[in-house]
Amino acid sequence: MRKYALLILALLAVAVSCTKMRDIRITDYSIAELENIGFTGVRATVRLSIDNPAKDFTVTSISGTVKRDGRDFAEFDLDSPVSVPHGNTSDCMFPMTLSLSASISPFEMLGVVSSIARAEGITVDATVKLKMKQGIRHTVRVRDVKFDEIMDFVR
Q: What is the per-residue pLDDT across 6-19, written as a single tens digit (0 to 9) for each?
C-alpha cells in the first residue's frame, strides 16, 4: 500500500509541475545574429524573452520542418542546449540552423522571403525536448501549426 501512496504522490508532483509548464510564455523575440551557410542555409541566434513561472529547465533539442502548401520547404535544428531559469522574464539565446530542403532552389527561397508577411500556406512540424532539473524529460510535438498561430503565441 505504501508503494501506491508514493506513486500517487510522485504523479501528483509531476502533474502540478506540468500545470505550471503550461503557464510559460514567450513575451518577445528577435534575431540576435545571422550568418549565411552557402546558398541553402542560415545559422541564426534567436533571442527569446521567456516568462517562466515553473521550475528551471533545459531545452536539449529542437528540430522540425517548415512546410509551404504541404511541401517540405526547410529543416531547422537547435545547435546546443539552452537553460531557461524560473522566475522573472529571462532573455535566452537559441542558436539555430535552418537549411532548405533538397527540392527547394535558392531562387524559390527569395520569393518566399519577399512574401513572408503574408505567411499563407506556411506550417511547422516540430519536436522540442526538455529536461527538468530533477532529471525528468519531456517531449513536445506539434504538427501542421500555422505560422500565424506561432506568431500569435509570441506576444
A: 444 444 444 445 55
